[in-house]
Amino acid sequence: MTRTARYLLALYIAEHRSSPPIPSGRIAELVDRSPAAATEMLQRLETDGLVDLEAYRGATLTDDGLERAADLHGTYVALSWFFRDVLDLDAHEHEAMEMAGLLSAEVADRLVHLLVDGNGRPDVDARLDADGPLDLPTLSTSRE
Amino acid sequence: MTRTARYLLALYIAEHRSSPPIPSGRIAELVDRSPAAATEMLQRLETDGLVDLEAYRGATLTDDGLERAADLHGTYVALSWFFRDVLDLDAHEHEAMEMAGLLSAEVADRLVHLLVDGNGRPDVDARLDADGPLDLPTLSTSRE
DNA sequence: GACTCCGTTTAGGCATACCTAAAACAAAAA
DNA sequence: TTTTTGTTTTAGGTATGCCTAAACGGAGTC
């Protein structure tokens, strides 16, 4: 069930771009898998109570799913920041997404704090509602 | 084939503790899997030319395997350092081992340089020949 | 109202990586 | 030399996560 995190994060991001339900085809694009794979995984997520699924219409995060996804997104943002600003690597958002679900809670937590404590309060929602094919967290310290 | 890295790293460490061939049972312990699982994976590694396998005796890294394993070990050491000295987390060597094989070459490389450049030349071999149930890279800046 | 199109879901398969239980083996004890 | 003991390997099976091709459904067109 390691991959569930990847789909949860994709759905979280998609829901910030357009309103749910999010069709499985869009999730498939975001995780770079076949539509069939996305459908299957969304069904598993529904079984786990993390997603509401309306056949032929799409998926919506449940409260539980939203909670997990928000955590994952925080980790993802921290990793993206780390790759870009610490390791000086661009275009590693994809790897950040893949890795977000693989870190232990401790490591994820410390990484997020490393970012927050060292950079003021970063606006984690930054760019969530922005344009672009991928969620590129710029980590500006405030937005509105 | 993501898990191959885990076994390769275990074998690398084991070979520094006692002389090869390393019996599959010992690898099984190091990766926390059943002996049967270790045997199977070692057979796959042999097929891939990364390991020499003598039935009922054990495995030895080939030159190719050694090369890959040494890289993995470098990444592992860097991750361990990062978890301990940057994130201030102890007892995360296990996670470092699991993660070492999951990082892209770029990220692994930058992470290693982050460690090397910021800490003098760390002795990557430190503790490889030391006692203890796990390989705990202390990252002292020199040894002999 | 029937048809066409396009996206979604189901069906059938496959690779990886694991497990338990049974068989095979090697080395030491009797 | 035979037996016992402990380890390794094989056999058979399972879960996850993916794929392609076929079937299905819905929305707009004729």
TrEMBL record, chains A, B:
Q: Which residues form the signal peptide?
A: none
Q: Which residues form a coiled coil?
A: none
Supply the SMART domains for this chain: HTH_DTXR (SM00529)
Q: Could you tell me which residue ranges the HTH dtxR-type domain spans?
A: 1-62
One Pfam family per UniProt? Fe_dep_repress
InterPro entries noted in UniProt: DtxR_MntR_Metal-Reg, HTH_DTXR, Iron_dep_repressor, WH-like_DNA-bd_sf, WH_DNA-bd_sf
Q: What domain of life does the UniProt record list for this protein's source? A: Archaea
PANTHER family cross-referenced by the UniProt entry? IRON (METAL) DEPENDENT REPRESSOR, DTXR FAMILY, IRON-DEPENDENT TRANSCRIPTIONAL REGULATOR
What is this protein called in UniProt? Answer: Metal-dependent transcriptional regulator
Taxonomic source organism: Halorubrum glutamatedens
